[in-house]
Amino acid sequence: MADAAPPPPLQDGPFVLRKLVSDLPLSADGQHSDARITCVEIWDGNLYVGTSAAELLHFVLLPPDADDPSAEPTAIVASRLEPPHNDPTGPGVQQILVLPRICKACVLCNNTLSMYSLPELSPDSTFKPISCLWVGGVDLNEAEGDDEGVVVVIGLKKRLRLVQITESSPPKAVKSIEYGACLLSVRRDAFSCAADSHSYALLDVMHQQKIGLFPISSLDPNAGHVGGAAETIATVPHPPSRSLSSASAQPSASEQRGHNRSTSLNIMGIGSAPSSRTASPPPPPQRHGFNVPDSPSPTVSPAPAHHPARSPARPAAGEATEGTAAEKPLPPPPGEAIPQLELQKAPQPPPFVPLRPHIASPTPNEFLLTVGTTPSEQGVGMFVNLDGDMCRGSIQFSSYPDALLVDGSGIDWTASMGPDMDAEEGYVLAAVHRGAGDELEYGVEIQRWDVDPGAGEATKDWLNLGALGLSTPDGTHIPTPLGMRTIVQPYDLVLPQIGAKLTVQRLQLPSKTGVDTPERAAPVHTAQEKADLEFTERLSKLKSRNVIWAGNQIWWIVRNPLVTRLDSRLEQATFATVDGEWRLHPHRNPVERVLGDIRGQDPRNESEYLSLIYIRQKASVLLFMDVVLRTRINIIIFENEKRITEQALIEGEVDPRIVLSLLPVLNKEVIQGPEGIQVSGGITSIIEQFLRQNDLSTMPTDVNGPFGDNLLHFVKRYLQFWRRRKGMASVTSDPFVFSTVDAALLHILLLLDQGSPNGTSSTGMYRAELNELVDREVECFDRAVELLEQFNRLYVLSRLYQSNCKASAKASKVLATWKRILDGEEDAGGAFVDGENELRKYLARIRDQSLVEEYGAWLANRNPKLGVQIFADDHSRVKFEPTSAVELLKEKAPGAVKEYLEYLVFGKKHTRYVNELIAFYLDTVIHELETNSESRDTLSQTYETYRILEPPKPTYHQFITDNAIPAEWWQARLRLLQLLGSNQPTTSSYHVSTILARLEPYEEELVPEMIILHGRQEQHQEALRLLTHGLGDFDTAISYCLYGYSSIFRPTTSGTLPIPQSELPSRLEQSRLFNFLLQEFLNIEDMSQRVDRTGELLERFGGWFDIGDVLAMLPNEWSVDIFSGFLINSLRRLVREKAESDIVKALSDAQNSQTSVELVEKREAAKPVVERVG
Q1: pLDDT tens string 598-618
Q2: Can you supply a Gene Ontology BP term from the record (predicted)?
């Protein structure tokens, strides 16, 4: 779709045209069809136009309609006058001098000056028309509040006359200056820069002195020697003469048709009588500036003096060389040939053409003068100060100017600029021409006067005259002569372009199903929008004092605002011809140059501040469009171009929704809200046009292709930049902006992270950025959930719930999401490592008991060992009583009850649950034995297998542990044996009788259990019987005698006692147990086993037996060799004990004797004590 129109002509110059009026009726009767405008003045809604037909037109300017303040005013003819004059063939109306303070106007028509009252242009009865060459010279420094009238300068043929004009009194002559034939004068206080037809001069009107400056044309043969020292130009006053007063010019026939005057010229002392001058005194010494005499003398007359420094060089025609006759060469000798010399003539200067002087005063201390050679050759502008010295570098014009004006106070580059200083560039506008003869074309050349031309900063611009409808193809020249003027007071104008560009408007994006549909109802005109509109209208108001006219049109010359200048350059770079159609297709280089030109530029006022923001935003959007269009055709963008685009977006602070609206996939994340996207109108138009011309749905969106490389990465950084600025005072508080930012940033990170390896995040990876995003508060919670579900990022979704859900729903959503992952639902990214343990830790941190019960039971069903820790964790915020926990597990996770009881008994040392755990083990084992005969056979086979093993063999507990089968009941039996055999208070506080009653039906299958229970009931003989005959575990039987019943069927560590030292039975108890064991060994059915085990027992542990008791129990038929070792050791022990007894007896006798001696000695030492009784 190619709906773009070619851009308008480039309007990037410092000034533009704004129509004032057109098609003015310059001739009322049609007789003067060639009449043209000669001068223009505007004051207080009144337009005064002078024509070449010697007519003065008065128009009333009606302001435009309030609904369209930018429209041109309506000009209604109020009057048409023909000012009095004596020359019907003259140039017409030459000057209109409006004096606002006294509501009068001076009109010069064909060298006849008349005066009118304003605004209706009624003739002034206090003034009679006079002949003069020029009128003006109003003090540019004069204060507005001065009520003493206005002093104007009237240029007579032989002098200047300063005249004071008031509103109600007749004009009064103030002073005369001997400077005749003045054509132009510009005055600052007492100093006036004036020009006649040949040269310029600087006048001190107070002290009546003159400094000649330089000729207007360097080819002028009548300019004479211009320049030199200050000259006194005072006149000698003459007594009033009646003949002088009657010498004034009589009005012509045209004057009779005009307004009659009855006032005599003698009131002002102005007449046509010749002036009297005294002889010129010797010239004063040369100096720069004025020589102010101590006592001004009116008799001093000017004396010319040559000053080469002030007179530009020019050729002098017909100048003879002195001494020519004396230096004439001698004739050649006779006979010699006279060589023929070919003499070349010097080039002749062009013929002299009078040039019109131009004077302007850009500052209170400077005057700008124009000089040249011919009208078609370049002119030069020269600056002089109040001392007559040149004070700036000169400026050049393409031709000698036809008209000249200055605008702006200029910037002083040597002075520091404060924030409150409203600096304004200084410009010179010159109406120049090109061509020759009948093919002359006219244009307005613009250049700065407040910059140094040698510093490379001076550039020239041309005023675009295309609006006049008369321009040549280049738009800068027209075939009609131009006139320019600075009017008496500023005029308020409205440039609609400023409002159209800066007014905040709603961006109309294509509607998308499911996205902000409710908000895209009719636009809401809020009070803020109205305030913004009033604000931009205020910015659109400008002031201008410069007008230009050509033919019957008058236009304002308006200072081109910064926004329109720069935006015009952007408009030229926005469109291009693509496939034969004019389409929006930005050119990167011109846009980058615009950004470079304003980089670092500080705004000087509010308007420039907003303009720079607008230009930065529009330029950055254009650069981004360029990246999008090139990405669309699979072009990889250079890194520096992406960096420039990103930096431009950041500096412009463009609404991120605008950026996202230009991208496929991500444009779905844009949320417009009820007020839409508010953006400047100049940006709104190009975005809407771009979206109409380009179907983004057809753009490739491969993350690993140009779409990802060109766009996603730096758009991601731009969105992160906006996210960091959230909450700043200077940033918008629109929630829809940051909702869009968060949603788009999440979408981009999900796209980029698709290629990351599974597992936890690492520094610098997209996974880490993704987790950081969801771990903080996001503004688009619902959309974030939708995106994470769409990309199957369940673990990231759980993190989003954890950081963004309400406290009441946070834990339930996190746990539900983790449950989905553990149940096998796809979790792209695989970041939920060791999920079951993470879930257990999370349950320990929350306070919701119902959630802990629900998910704790679920985890206990899934992983009993891990799940039961939730119900037994003392550091958990939700604590369970073991009784209620057991009941809960029995109901919801029966398989975890055993693990929970084991954790309580073995891990937490809770003895009160020993019986329950033992009962659980018993239930498991007995249920197995009752329901499965193979399990009973398995137990019986273990006993038989163990009994046939030849010594040395492991204990039965070690045997069944090493040969355990992977069955729950088998493991339960091992833990049951450990619990039953433990002598610890925490695990031995069970009800023996209850357990024994349940085991008795299975005493043949559960022999170890019966042994332990008999031992706890101190039925040691029965326990040893079962060990010896039921199991054949002789080593365990010996351990039973040495360490007690609690030492059997429990894990042991090599090198340590199976029970603590304090729990060992006494030797007497051990001896009694060994006697029981000896009896059981003697009852072993296998004779060889009986003999071997008895002999070994007696030999190893003979010390615990009494030899007499042993010999009484041993069969008589046994050989002594069987227990010879026991006998030898016993006899040795008896002998040793006998010897030890004798030693002890002897030691006791010695000790008794020693004690008796000590007693006798003490008795002898003690004296007798006599006790008397009675």
Answers
A1: 998 888 888 888 899 999 999
A2: endosomal vesicle fusion
List, in order, residues 6 or more apart from 1019 with CB less than 8 Å away: none
Asked if 395 and 240 count as a contact pair (C-beta separation under 8 A), the reply is no
Tokens 């023929």: give the residue.
Answer: 340
Give the pLDDT of residue 1016.
83
CA distance 904 to 916: 11
* Prior bond of 119 cis (ω within 30°): yes
End-to-end CA distance of the chain: 153
Pull the structure tokens for residue 611.
């303009």
- What are the CA-CA distances from residue 498 to residues 464, 493, 1060, 1126 (Å)? 18, 12, 99, 125
In a domain, 439, yes or no: yes
Whether residue 967 is contained in a domain is answered as yes
Sign of CA dihedral 195, 201, 204, 207: negative
Whole-structure pTM value: 0.73
As a whole number of angstroms, the distance between CA 815 and CA 843 comes to 9
Give the chain's count of helices (H) and strands (E). 34, 35
* Token pair of 648 as six digits: 């431009």
Domain shared by 969 and 998, yes or no? yes
851 within some domain: yes
The mean-pLDDT minimum among 272-281, 650-659, 910-919, 1120-1129 falls in 272-281
Using 50, 70 and 90 to split pLDDT, how confident is the model at 407? very high
Question: Residue 1050: its pLDDT value, please?
Answer: 65
Number of folded domains in the chain?
Answer: 5
Q: Do 938 and 1069 belong to one domain?
A: yes
Other C-beta atoms lying within 10 Å of the C-beta of residue 622: 27
Residues 1121 and 1041 in one domain: no
Distance CA 788, CA 743 (A): 11
For residue 497, what pLDDT is reported?
83
Under 8 Å between Cβ of 274 and 158: yes
Q: What would the mean pLDDT of 296-315 be, rounded to a whole number?
A: 37
In the DSSP assignment, the letter for residue 322 is: T
pLDDT above 60 for 327: no
| Run of H or E residues at 488 | strand 483-494
Range of the domain at 714: 561-727
Give yes or no for residue 1167 having a pLDDT over 90.
no
